[in-house]
Amino acid sequence: MRVLVWLMWLMHWLPLPVLGRIGDATGALLFALLRKRRHIALTNLRLCMPEVTEEARVAIARQHFQGYARSVWERGILWWASEQRLRRLIKVDAPGVPLAQIESGPTILLCPHFVCLDVAGVAVMLESSLCSIYVAQKNKVFDEVLRRGRSRFRPVQLFSRKEGVKPIIRAMKAGLPYFMLPDMDFGDKDAAFVPFFGIPAATLTAPGRLAQATGAKVIPVVATFLPNYQGYRVTFYPEWQDYPGGDLEGSARRMNAFIEARVREAPSEYFWTHKRFKTRPPGEPGVY
């Protein structure tokens, strides 16, 4: 792992078009080699996009592997590049990071699992501290590099999922926005089966419950690649009004509809290699 970290540090000096093309080549190779992950991605795409041809779905899956590999290699830029270089590469759509809203009270920054999600986190941390859930890495060297990389511009509070919601609420009440990744399958506990691309998906109700408990405003944020290896685009969407509106299942449905719309805008950049439909409603067979 030390060799990999050293290689990532060395490669972060490369121009982004060169590093991006290395990522594309790596991803194309992984698409050919990682049969299980390829199967998961193609299964997800067949479920979610039955209207497109199988050839098109294979192309999206291959591009996803390439985008994911790019995001791994380019993480070195996020961890070690100068602030000036990052500000040049990360284009935040107007009106920019919503600092006034963050400073006005508890805020949830809702970030779906697109491959550039770490870029969204850096865009926030260039302007503001934050808190988030963190899964400790098994390799201590990589874990330390990852933690340092995610907190090098501002103090960041990272909590384990096992700690529960109380430390997050305390941090939010102390003025830290909560950078929340809401769209993975963690089982049916504290979840509702609501449609995602028309398929019942176990969807966390935590965003709605946390917004209820803290009075937090919910502001979605999505990061994607700019074309031609020019950098990254980060978009902060308008604050959701009347959320969760007293209906946690409805709030989960609303969130999935929003994410689905963003996925259709950049289909290859969503995290298709995750078993999004692993947990099935009672009586329904598995899909993987």
Q: For the residues shown, what is the average pLDDT? A: 94
How many strands? 9
Rg, Cα atoms, Å:
19 Å
- What is the count of distinct domains? 1
Shape: globular
Return residue spans where pLDDT drops below 50 for at least 5 consecutive residues. none
Tell me about the biggest sheet? 7 strands, mixed
Tell me the strand order in the biggest sheet.
Answer: 1-9-8-2-5-3-4
- Beta-strand content: 15-25%
Tally of individual helices: 12
Q: Could you give the distance between the termini? A: 31 Å
The helix fraction, in percent, is 40-55%
Structural class computed from helices and strand pairing:
alpha/beta
> What oligomeric state is this?
single chain
Secondary-structure element string: HHHHHHEHEHEHEHEEEHEEH
Task: List the SSEs and their pairings.
Layout: H1 2-11, H2 16-33, H3 35-48, H4 54-73, H5 75-80, H6 83-89, E1 90-92, H7 99-103, E2 107-110, H8 117-125, E3 130-133, H9 140-150, E4 156-159, H10 166-173, E5 178-180, E6 191-196, E7 199-204, H11 206-214, E8 217-225, E9 232-236, H12 248-265
Parallel strand pairs: 1-9, 2-5, 2-8, 3-4, 3-5
Antiparallel strand pairs: 6-7, 8-9
Characterise this structure.
This protein is α/β, with parallel strands linked by helices. It is globular, with a radius of gyration of 19 Å. The two termini are 31 Å apart. The mean pLDDT is 94.
Keywords for this entry:
288 residues; alpha/beta; 7-stranded mixed beta sheet; two-stranded antiparallel sheet; 12 helices; 9 strands; globular
